[in-house]
């Protein structure tokens, strides 16, 4: 998984007025937790773009006052109208401690059901994963090469390596839907065959 570097600066004052002032200066207030101490900081909003406005996930090297913390983005708040970043939460991570992240899924292979006229649907864009940082995947491949019409891939069908998906095994991740026109044509053909018997 890729790592993004972010520079932060310690916040001396933690009140609402200070937060508003930082935002006016195009900086986002944030907090780092999960380690021995909470670290309150701010960072230029421009540095957060590649981390926040993307479907991908990253590790973060957060440097505050010369000290580097390995962490992940745990949460972010946005202005409801302007979409400006109001606040970011980071969780410090450690090599010997498992961490939970929402990892994007990608579909691999060609589904035979699509060639037969069906439409491939991704039902889950991200899945909750538990792993040590060094084993955390950048994405979860979902193989659809065995999917015929009306078939689906469930969580239990996904092959994992050194990580655990924290969702129920029976939940569908991708499926080949049968279009209404194809479904009615199939049922008409079945009815015609039945009437000939």
Labels describing this entry:
single chain; 197 residues; alpha+beta; six-stranded mixed β-barrel; 4 helices; 13 strands
Fold and architecture overview:
There is one protein chain. This protein has 197 residues and is α+β, with helices and mostly antiparallel strands. The protein is built from 4 helices and 13 strands. The chain has helices spanning 16-24, 45-52, 112-115, 180-196, and strands spanning 3-10, 27-33, 39-44, 59-64, 67-78, 85-92, 99-108, 119-122, 126-131, 140-143, 152-154, 164-165, 172-177. The chain has a 6-stranded mixed β-barrel. A 4-stranded mixed β-sheet has the order 10-7-9-12, with no helix packed on it. It starts with a strand and ends with a helix.
């Amino acid at each position: 998984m890729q790592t993004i570097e972010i520079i932060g600066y310690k916040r001396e004052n933690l009140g609402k007025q200070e937060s508003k002032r930082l935002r006016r200066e195009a900086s986002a207030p944030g907090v780092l937790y999960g380690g021995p101490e909470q670290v309150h900081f701010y960072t230029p909003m421009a540095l957060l773009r590649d981390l926040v406005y993307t479907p991908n996930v990253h590790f973060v090297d957060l440097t505050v006052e010369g000290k580097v913390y390995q962490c992940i983005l745990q949460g972010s708040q946005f202005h409801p109208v302007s979409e400006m970043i109001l606040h970011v939460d980071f969780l410090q991570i450690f090599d010997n401690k498992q961490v939970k992240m929402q990892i994007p899924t990608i579909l691999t292979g060609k589904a035979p059901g699509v060639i037969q006229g069906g439409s491939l649907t991704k039902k889950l864009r991200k899945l909750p994963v538990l792993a040590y940082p060094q084993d955390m995947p950048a994405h979860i491949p979902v193989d659809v090469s065995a999917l015929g019409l009306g078939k689906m891939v469930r969580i239990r069908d996904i092959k994992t390596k050194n990580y655990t998906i924290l969702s129920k095994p029976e939940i569908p991740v991708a499926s080949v839907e049968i279009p209404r026109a194809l479904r009615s044509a199939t049922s008409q053909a079945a009815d015609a065959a039945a009437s000939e018997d």
